[in-house]
Design a protein that fits this description.
Blueprint (H helix, E strand, L loop, with lengths): L23 H8 L4 H7 L15 E5 L8 H15 L1 H4 L9 E5 L7 H9 L5 E5 L20 E5 L16 E5 L5 H9 L6 E5 L8 E3 L5 E5 L11 E3 L5 E5 L17 E5 L5 H9 L6 E5 L6 E6 L4 E5 L5 E6 L16 H12 L6 E6 L9 H6 L9 E6 L6 H11 L5 E6 L5
Parallel strand pairs: 1-2, 2-3, 3-4, 4-5, 5-6, 6-8, 7-9, 8-10, 10-11, 11-12, 12-14, 13-15, 15-16, 16-17, 17-18
Amino acid sequence: MHDGKGEDQEPNTAGVDRLSELPDNVIHYILSLVSTVDVVRMSILSKRWQRMWYSLPVLCFSDSADFGKSKSTKLCKFVGKCFTLRKNDLLNVTDTTITKVMLSTTYSWSRTCSWLRLVAKSNIKELDLDLPWLRKHRFPLELLCSKSLTHLRLSCVSFPNLHSASLPSLISLSLESLLLDDHAFHNLLLGCCSLEKLLIKYCHHLSNPKVSNSSLKFLEIGSSYAYDFGEMFRVDAINLESFICHGSRICCMSTLASCGKLRNLTFSQSRIKDQWLEDLIFRLPVLESLTLEYCNELRNIKICRSPSFKISMNVRSLVEANVTLSPVGHWKDNFLPVVYDTSWYTNLLYFLSNLDCSKNMDLRVYSEEALIFPDELRRAHDAPLPTVKHLKVTTCRSLMRNTDLQDSLFWALPTLETMRLDLRNRQF
């Protein structure tokens, strides 16, 4: 029983403002996750938050804000007032500088260009613009002459008369649904000497563009069937490590093979041919992963890689897959025994699982041991090639465990109808 003094009673926390007790950096992080409209509205939650939004380093506006009737007019006034109140912060007159601005709207506001010119005078690091209506107006080219910008995303804008750009600190550039010709595109990239990541999607008026940048590491390009690029999309990026290509005609490139540091390669819905892909893979010595999706002109793919090579395929047009499994240094030195360990079989299992898109397969290995999966692995995993009907296996060494090999292959290919085992007395 209680003695009436309330020693065991929980303290009364009614009226305590817990939000105001949070550190500034925590409050800034929370508020940076929502739009500026919501930040202002959230200021009523705490006395301390009432003016906290003035010190946020982010201005974020979009049509998703709910202003009820006359939304365009009210949202325009709100955005304009925010730019007015934070003008000194944009111009670095105060200690609370703004580092990121995002504006996404379908409304045609006459004041937008003046806001963007104010942004161009600032030292922001990130800029994200999605302004479809701005195609009809002159894009403020001052925005493309910023020493501070590190990340830039432009969507649905136009600057066909771009003669020069200067973005020396820019690391990431995203161009989506732009009216952009080859000349403007070339001049824009010339001004991005530190660029590492470039994304180009659905940019109209590009006919034969060239990506030439020695610092570029990641490149993603995409087109729609209505707005294909021309016959040649040239890539000259010696330090490129990852390339992703979406679209029908945009991968007819003759210079991609010069990207000797390329490690990750993806083609999706691209019109590529068997021999072209085979030659490209052969010229990329450090390639680690290959992804092919809906490339319906592929018929017969030849791949010579170790099982640690990561591959993912969804190509239903494929008639036959020819695969040479070659451990590093395997046929270069016949005096060194090859050890087929757990790592080999695990990598092989996942490698073959991603090749299950053709009913015909030709596997080439140095020894039959390479394909005899351990019993414990078979019990723990599903068959990697459940749809392959016809298989040919070629080895360089005499078959000593023919029965074990057949048992392993019938587990790996449960619907197998025909199988042929060949011995080849020379290296592949």
